[in-house]
Amino acid sequence: MTTLLIGAHEGQKFISFDVPGAFLQAEMAEDKLVLLKLKGQFVDMMCDINPEFKPHIRYEPTRNGKKIKVLHMKVIRVIYGCIEAVLQWYIMFTGTLKKLGYKLNPYDKCVANKIINGK
User: Fold this and answer.
1) Residue 39: its H or E element
2) Rounded to an integer, what distance in angstroms lies between the CA atom of residue 93 and that of residue 110?
3) Which of 9, 21, 34, 104 is spaced 20 to 30 A from 80 at the CA atom?
4) What is the pLDDT of residue 115?
5) Long-range contacts formed by 29-32: CB under 8 A, 24+ apart
6) What is the pLDDT of residue 87?
7) pTM of model > 0.90
8) CA angle 90, 97, 84 (to 5 degrees)
């Protein structure tokens, strides 16, 4: 709020927006290994989409003694609910802003500033 008040006093212009599917845009950090475990019909659905996964299906026992299909997959893009999602998105997005000539506000790292035509 303080940033907006100062900017309004200085006559700055503001842009605010939402990026649909933002977290899905960022890649998982190379030093992180996150596995997704699919079970049952989700395994079938994934193998229908990409049959190359079929040789990687395993069977695990359930509590009632039956076996269930299981497929472990490496996550290469961050996903909602993953603790890395917010950080990886922030790193990717701020990197893009910097390439476009924006500078991160030293007092509020969620605000990027750019001087255009001397303003």
Assistant:
1) strand 35-39
2) 11
3) 104
4) 81
5) 29/84, 29/88, 32/84
6) 83
7) no
8) 10
